[in-house]
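User: These chains co-purify. Model them together.
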Amino acid sequence: MSENGQPVVATTADTSTVTDKVIDLRAIDVYYGRVQALTRVSLEVRQGEIVALIGSNGAGKTTTLRTISGLISPRKGEVLLFGKAIQGIGAAQIARLGVGHAPEGRRLFARMTVRENLDMGAYSRGDRAGIRTDLERVYTLFPRLRERDSQLAGSLSGGEQQMVAIGRALMSAPKVLLLDEPSLGLAPILVDAIFEVIREINAKGTTILLIEQNALLALKTAVRGYVLENGAVALAGPSEELIASPDIQRAYLGM
Amino acid sequence: MRKRLAAFLSTEAEGGPSTAGTAVFWILGCTASGFLLIGWLLPWFVGPYDAGVGFSAQDALVSAPTGIGTILIYVLAVAMVVLLLSPLAEVVMRLRGRTLGRRADRIRLYLGIGGVVLTGVVWLLYRVVQEEPLFGQVQPGEISDSAIWLTMYGFALAALVYGARRWVIGRQTLAFGTAALPFGVFLPLMFHQAPDFLLWAAGSLAIYMLLALGLNVVVGFAGLLDLGYAAFFAIGAYACASFASPIHNIHWPLWILIFVGAAIASLFGAILGAPTLRLRGDYLAIVTLGFGEIIPDLATNNVFNLTGGPNGISGIDQPHWGFLDFSESPRWYYWSLLLVSIAVIVLLRNIERSRVGRAWVALREDEVAAAATGINTTTTKLLAFAIGASVSGLAGAFYGSLVTVVTPDDFSFSVSIAVLSIVVLGGIGNIAGVILGSVILTFVIFWALPNMDAWSTTLSSTVHVPALANIDFGSYTYIIYGIALILMMLFRPGGLLPSRARRIELESAGESESLAAVQGIA
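Assistant: Joint model of the two components:
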């Protein structure tokens, strides 16, 4: 298991601002009604990185991802994607700009087949050849899905559903992939397999922002990590530093 | 060629007994029996001005078989009874875990074909050689055209269902279309002696079919429960009434007005959709319910002096170009509506398979996931409301022109419920199911139930049971309707022809239940 460094991938995007920051959250405040969920959260994800977001339940991890993919809008602060502000432009538009989100709890289209779920992932794309290549890629990453491709997504096992969720997010050919607890409810052996695939996806050049309950696994996979507590960033830094930090060891690693 | 013909005529059924393929088989089989029965006993179903083929047989029984015509009718009766009881025989054999053999199907195929030919011969003898006492005491003109047509159609259907069993089961949509389309097209000619029935076919069946097709977009495709759908129907009808009547002294032709009605209704659909974008399920249902009450209320209160108040708008124009005189018979409306319905069905089917259609399904399954995959939920929802409403507006414009008077009462809550019942009973999200549902429910609600009293009176005098005539079926209308719906939902929870998603879901629910049972034991 290599501590994946930063694979240098040339940015093909013709963005006007030259930046290697794929995602850049600048002091965002997010509210659910009157309840404040995030307070001045700043976070960045650079090209080619895997970044882990850890924290206890209710710390605001999922809310952070939902803010990035536009499912909620921040009340204050800025969300930059490749240096451009994207807050408030709507989830559909953000997905089109290259953010693939495998949301919490998988949220598959239960009464659609595996294949149809994957096709829905490519909804906003027009290039048929590219879609076919990516479908093949997903099937190569998850051979199980090829076997099940005409089965209803709702009838799959938890691990298979997670594969569909990740595969569906990949089908949009995302520049950055947001993964919300990919190991949730999976057997340990499946967790390892899923993380292996995550590293593989990253090695092919997709930037990944990852939420994970299993902090050690997350930090070992990621280059850098952010620790959220009560809706604010409590700690941030390279993974090795976080793993070595006594606070983290006590609170999240159970050491 | 021989081989293909043999395969075509093969008796082996594909798929289990609960698949929609066999559903079409059963539906066509039972329809064949129904048509034979109705053709035989037509006066009980259509009215006193019409007599069935069976009437001559009945009269012949009283006297003696005096002519060749009577003998032919006896032969027909035998063929008819065999085919009439065929679905029953199929059920019994299925229950005993067996199927009727290939020979039985062959026999029924020949009976069906023979029946068509013989009925034709009877008709020819009856019409051409009517001077001769071929039919015993039957007077010329007593057997109605509709009876003959229904009987012939019943025989032909039976021949198709039992003779080409594999094809009917394998190519269900095509088979259903082949069986239904000629009937749909020729209906006004077959029932030219029964204007009431034509009025039903145009004013109830065709209009409600359009309404149900439109509601199916909203409820079935996009999964948005709409309980006030009659409002858009009202908007279409009032649009037609306003622009083609003396009330504002505007007289636009119907062909423009159906588009005007559709456009105005779709605008209102978007207006209803916009504020309710964030609502789902029961909350949305309540809002749409309110909308459905507001629109007729506005019409009653004569807003802006546009709607004529509680009396509505009367004197709506009916198109009249040359020989195409729409006021002369409902059949012109019927054919126009049939043409429009086919266009709408083709259009909706294409939309269903397009990007928008897929987006609707995704939205129905999971709104958050749909948004995350790049679907613009706002426009997708508004489009569902607008397209659904536009079909309703189209139907409304036709309705206004057909009945020439529109009043607020025509668009009450019960209309919305009837349309929703059609969609649910036919099969939410499945266009073929919705079509079938509209045929069956409009027949029950708008033809069978209102005529029940007349039928029981006729029956009581025929079988000499006076008590039958005293039953007031009118007061049981909604009980019968309700019981039918409950039974339907108990035995076919996905509707008559469930949509693919619903069907697989029901099937896999059964599987996972049995799986759970196995795991529970293990």
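The longest helix of chain B spans residues 431-463.
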